[in-house]
Each structure stands twice: as structure tokens, then as C-alpha cells.
């Protein structure tokens, strides 16, 4: 049987596995029924007990359970073996030709890995990599912000919002309102309407000048004390609000300490996994032409990794279709149109000659063009 894709073959083997499992279970259930029937007969005073065991033995031999299960397992093993062979053929184990030989600084690598573990809350592992980097003085500066963050997040898991509210960076922000709202609802859910109203006057009233509409909705909750689940405000009780707030707090913490929300190690590895198939194919194609792609300054094929991996703006010249670089930067002409430097020099034939903009009647010289920075 031929399969169009590896997924089809995997699904075929998975189907065999499910069939084998169900058939094996049927055999086991049949054996169990026979044994239970034999036990019932043994307990009966009117049945010849000596004849029961030979009869049971005869029934089990006729069922031949071992042969049936072995046959099912053998068919499954054949499918698994073929799948393993095709996986080995389809996937290239040697990925060394898809990367460039870069002399990485081991200390920097250790710091990046330590930063990743600190972000995950694995501080002992992070400390190990800091010690490997021989830069133990960075433990405080790199570790401390994430340690503080995880103290806040762990407290939130226990429905304790005080550490988050005591953090100065949230004062007066939308995030403070969300924290205050959760705390207000916690008090109200406990049935203490008077305490909830007192809390609102103390902590929500100062935020009313900016978040009046949100606070007015919260005040409506006071009418539904002890029965918020059946009120028009039941949506406020969703646990998703706590999870979203934890994410927002993490993002704000990272912003305050000048770090990206995503771990640089995670971003790099994820981007590399997405780019690997294209790079392997490129290496095979160019290698067959006896050229070395790793010496190229720019890849000859597009590498679309998605918007989540676009951290800087890029400019593609509308004339040459080349992506701007340090050697070929984008240049703004007096008419407002932008071309790459090399395209402008080609149009002008010389830095002193005038040329007409390819998109409007404006006539300019290279001296009037200015480099722009994204």
C-alpha cells in the first residue's frame, strides 16, 4: 500500500494500533467471562466440580487467546517497522550543512540559557549557568527581577493580590483597575457587601476619573451579592481573567526591566525550527552546483517566518526589488518617494547628474536625496 504523505502512513498505523487494542481487550473480556462462569459453577453444590476445570481448559484452548493476540501484535509490529524506516528516509539526520560555523562566546550562551530558566521560574538551574559563565555578579541584576515577578505570580495563584498591588509600576494604570476589580469581587463573593462597598470607596473611587464606566459596572455587582453567578455580571467571575492578568503582569515586568516578553532562546530555537527545512533544501540545491551558500551575505530564497518574528521594519526597493541593507540603504527623494541607494545611482548614472523619479515627474539629483532609518 502506498501513502501520499507521512501523515497518512502514521494514521494507518494508529488505526492498526486501535484495532489491535480493541481486539485484545475482547479476548481478555472473553477469558474473564469464562473464568467467572467457572467460579460460579464451582460454588454451586449441584455441579460436579471435578469436571469444571477440564471444561474451562478445553474452552480456553479452543479460544486460542495467545495466538489471536500474537497475530494482532505481529500485524502492528510490521506497520511500526515500515513507519520507522520511512521516517529515517524522509528526515535528514545531519543538519550541520544548514547552519554556519559561528564562533559563539560560551559565556554569552550560558547567560542566555540562564535568562531562559529565570523566566520559567527555574532559579536553581539559572544559577548553575550563571556560575558556568563566571559572571556571578550578574546573578542579582539578571535574577532579581524575575524572582520578584514569580513571587507576585505565585501569590496570585493563591488568590493573593497584595504583592501585585504593592508593585509601584501599576499605580493608576488599567492594570491596577483590573487587580482592584478582582479583589473587590473576591470580597463580594464572600457575601460581605458592606466590606465590598468600603473597599470600593477606598481603592476604586480614586480611579474613577479615568475608569468611570468600568467602576459603574462594578457597582452594579453590589446588588447581586451572594448570587453573582446568576447575575448579568457573571462574566467577571471567569478564571480566564486571572490568567490574562498574569500574562499582562509578566509583560509589564519584562518591559520595566528592559527585557522582551518572549525568551530570546525560545524565539531563536522556534525560528530555527521553522527555517530548517528551507535551509536544508537550499544547501542541497546549491551544494549540487558546487557553491557554498554559507558564504552568501543574503539568502537567494525568501524566508517567511511570520509576523511574530518580525522585530524590525524592512524596506524593499520598488525598482530593483532588493531588500535594503547597510551598503544599500533606503534614500528619500524630495518628491517623497523612496528608493534604494544603488537604484538611485543607476538612474542618475553619476552622482552629479539629474534624473526623473520613476513614480512622478519630479527631477532630482543624488545630492538632494537623504538616507532614512527605520
What is the strand and helix layout of this fold?
Blueprint: H1 6-43, H2 49-63, H3 65-90, H4 106-119, H5 123-132, H6 138-157, H7 162-165, H8 174-189, H9 193-204, H10 208-220, H11 240-256, H12 264-288, E1 330-332, E2 338-340, H13 341-348, E3 354-356, E4 363-365, E5 370-371
Antiparallel strand pairs: 1-2, 1-5, 3-4
Subcellular location: Cytoplasm
Pfam families: CTLH, zf-RING_UBOX
Domain CTLH: 145-195
Describe the structure.
It is a single chain. The chain has 374 residues and is mainly alpha-helical. Among the domains are: 6-85; 159-237; 312-374, Zinc/RING finger domain, C3HC4 (zinc finger) (Herpes Virus-1, 2-Layer Sandwich), CATH 3.30.40.10. Helix content is 58%, strand content 4%. It has 13 helices and five strands. It has helices at residues 6-43, 49-63, 65-90, 106-119, 123-132, 138-157, 162-165, 174-189, 193-204, 208-220, 240-256, 264-288, 341-348; strands spanning 330-332, 338-340, 354-356, 363-365, 370-371. A three-stranded antiparallel β-sheet has the order 2-1-5. It has a two-stranded antiparallel sheet with strand order 3-4. A hairpin with a 5-residue loop joins β1 and β2 (338-340). The chain is flat, with a radius of gyration of 35 Å. Keywords: Cytoplasm, Metal-binding, Zinc, Zinc-finger. Residues 317-360 form the RING-Gid-type domain.
Amino acid at each position: 500500500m502506498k501513502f501520499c504523505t507521512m501523515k497518512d502512513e502514521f494514521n494507518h498505523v494508529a488505526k492498526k494500533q486501535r484495532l489491535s487494542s480493541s481486539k485484545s481487550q475482547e479476548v481478555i473480556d472473553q477469558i474473564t467471562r469464562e473464568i467467572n462462569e467457572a467460579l460460579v459453577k464451582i460454588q454451586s453444590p449441584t455441579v460436579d466440580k471435578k469436571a469444571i476445570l477440564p471444561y474451562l481448559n478445553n474452552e480456553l484452548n479452543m479460544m486460542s487467546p495467545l495466538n489471536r493476540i500474537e497475530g494482532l501484535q505481529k500485524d502492528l509490529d510490521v506497520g511500526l517497522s515500515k513507519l520507522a524506516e520511512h521516517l529515517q528516509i524522509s528526515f535528514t539526520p545531519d543538519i550541520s550543512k544548514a547552519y554556519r560555523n559561528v564562533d559563539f562566546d560560551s559565556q554569552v550562551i550560558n547567560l542566555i540559557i540562564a535568562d531562559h530558566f529565570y523566566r520559567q521560574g527555574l532559579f536553581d538551574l539559572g544559577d548553575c549557568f550563571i556560575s558556568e559563565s563566571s559572571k556571578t555578579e550578574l546573578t542579582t541584576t539578571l535574577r532579581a527581577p524575575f524572582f520578584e515577578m514569580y513571587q507576585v505570580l505565585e501569590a496570585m495563584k493563591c488568590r493573593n493580590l497584595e504583592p501585585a498591588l504593592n508593585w509601584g509600576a501599576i499605580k493608576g494604570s488599567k492594570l491596577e483597575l483590573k487587580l482592584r476589580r478582582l479583589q473587590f469581587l473576591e470580597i463580594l463573593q464572600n457575601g460581605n457587601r458592606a466590606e465590598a462597598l468600603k473597599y470600593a470607596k477606598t481603592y476604586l473611587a480614586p480611579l474613577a476619573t479615568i475608569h468611570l464606566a468600568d467602576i459603574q459596572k462594578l457597582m452594579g455587582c453590589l446588588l447581586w451579592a451572594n448570587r453573582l453567578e446568576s447575575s448579568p455580571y457573571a462574566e467577571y467571575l471567569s478564571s480566564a481573567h486571572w490568567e490574562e492578568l498574569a500574562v499582562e503582569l509578566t509583560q509589564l515586568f519584562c518591559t520595566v526591566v528592559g527585557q522582551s516578553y518572549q525568551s530570546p532562546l525560545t524565539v531563536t530555537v522556534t525560528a530555527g525550527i521553522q527555517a530548517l527545512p528551507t535551509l536544508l533544501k537550499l544547501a542541497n540545491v546549491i551544494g549540487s552546483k558546487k557553491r557554498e551558500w554559507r558564504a552568501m551575505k543574503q539568502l537567494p530564497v525568501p524566508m517567511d517566518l511570520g509576523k511574530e518574528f518580525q522585530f524590525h521594519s524592512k524596506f524593499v526597493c520598488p525598482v530593483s526589488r532588493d531588500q535594503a541593507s547597510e551598503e544599500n540603504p533606503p534614500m528619500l527623494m524630495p518628491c517623497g518617494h523612496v528608493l534604494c541607494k544603488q537604484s538611485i545611482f543607476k538612474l542618475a548614472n553619476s552622482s552629479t547628474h539629474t534624473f526623473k523619479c520613476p513614480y512622478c515627474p519630479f527631477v532630482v539629483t543624488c545630492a538632494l536625496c537623504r538616507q532614512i532609518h527605520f
